[in-house]
């Protein structure tokens, strides 16, 4: 009998579902959805395209330090995720979703145009002022679209007949967001790096201008669909009602008229608010307690566009003739999400279910937090491999000295004139250079003894040379400097510093930085004589013969030298040019990404020879950018387990009427996470000795956060109902 009743119920349910499907087929698919989707795709393209290059623009063009650029980047994100609460209230209570989307889209477009104009040098606008105004308008604009676009799309469907189509809409909506993210994050860095404009090697006006144009198109598309939209009138915001209910309960708690004998403090509002609102608010607060550990995860996750992007600028992105831009690594997150979301859904979760582990959303969130901590641990390990190639200014009073040996014999060096020692402090091979450890130069000088020990080598070159030099080497304190060892015009060994400090800072764009020096100590050629201006020309070997020239503009003592300039990673033919002749160096030189070089040339024009030594002041970016891939994979796994499971927990455990409130709170948790990063960036110099230590600190905090979250989740009792699981659009 029982089985018969059960079978009848199943038949009724099946027939009801079939009836709903037939009714849904009769109702045409809302045409306005396509306009809403196009608007969202355009806005996401514009937002993610601008955001991809934002940190690098602030560092490279606005000349903000990395900590300052990181702070402003996360202030922007904090506004993007904090202001949706305001716009949600304004939309639900006064403007309505359609007008809100239209107004904020215009604000967003104006902000994007303002940002673009600020990046165009010929306009001579106050760059920083226009930049911050544009960024603020864009933050306000995108914040207004977050709580409105998806709900407006949901309102186009007739429920319950089109409930399945509504679910497909939200899946498609997520797909559109991801596609907009992926396309813009790949294309915009190409506009920035591979296109030249306004006499600049990069083109930020194009990188900002294309997304701005797409956003203007989005407004036109959105307005075009006006007659097709189903528009509901504002009916009040649930968050406002919840806040008022909580405030009244707190204020009424101590009144005699309040329900002081009630089991829950919210019951004190029963004399003004209906029981259903109070019950739903209790359910909301029960879920919000578990939001407390969420900001720490977002503090890690949002650094993909700041700290991790800056980390990528210090790495080598070259793959054959193709180069991965640092900001393009951000797109790997979206790609990995596409790959792993179905893998987790149809493979990992079923396996976990069969094993009886991590079956509940809170449990999966704990694992996601641990994976995020692991991703930052890996980022810290990678950073420790990067940091040896990064140079910082020497400590006060210390000098890092490069000695270049232009003598065709090994030269031994004793510091402090300690010639009585049996073994020299250093020995430099012929036509080579040696970097000495940081030295403390008292009164900007240090006694040095240089000697050629191998007399046979000396006698086999030019007769009558003296193979020893003793004297005080005058250098610049707290700097990097290069000194050359050569024979002077009186045929004696000489050690002299070059008349400039070496540039040790890496290129912000990942190029090689190079300076050229011509030493004319022992030739009869006059530096300011009849030969005119000298210059060095580089011709790339692998880059279609691209050439670049460097004028030797400055002459001090017996050397002429150029300013430091940047060249793309390549192997180059080096030619020393004067008005009378071109002297090509016998060797080709490879200038690598991130390296800083001084090419010292000793030319004997009468003999038609140019001898040279290349000094590597700062090592190149020798760690490949693909070593970032493991940390991106771990973060993608953490994102799936933490964010997706967190949204599942929120929307199944809270009352159906509170879903819009939870969406606002979720955005606020993201804003709080960005605030954590801002605080860390502002205190970077005080609390962290290196970027690696900051990464490890975030990893430790996230691990601790996950442990606390695990204890919180241990005793949670899931009380979800079918009503809570139903789709409700606000």
TrEMBL record:
Membrane topology reported for the UniProt record: Multi-pass membrane protein
Record localization: Membrane
First-listed, main subcellular location of the protein, grouped into a coarse class: membrane
Pfam families given in the database record: PTR2 (PF00854)
Stretches that traverse the bilayer: 72-90, 102-124, 130-149, 169-192, 204-223, 283-301, 331-352, 364-382, 625-644, 664-683, 695-716
The organism's place on the tree of life at top rank: Eukaryota
Entry keywords, A to Z: Membrane, Peptide transport, Protein transport, Transmembrane, Transmembrane helix, Transport
Position of the signal peptide: none
Keyword Transmembrane helix: yes
Similarity remark: Belongs to the major facilitator superfamily. Proton-dependent oligopeptide transporter (POT/PTR) (TC 2.A.17) family.
Protein's recorded name: Peptide transporter family 1
Organism of origin: Orchesella dallaii
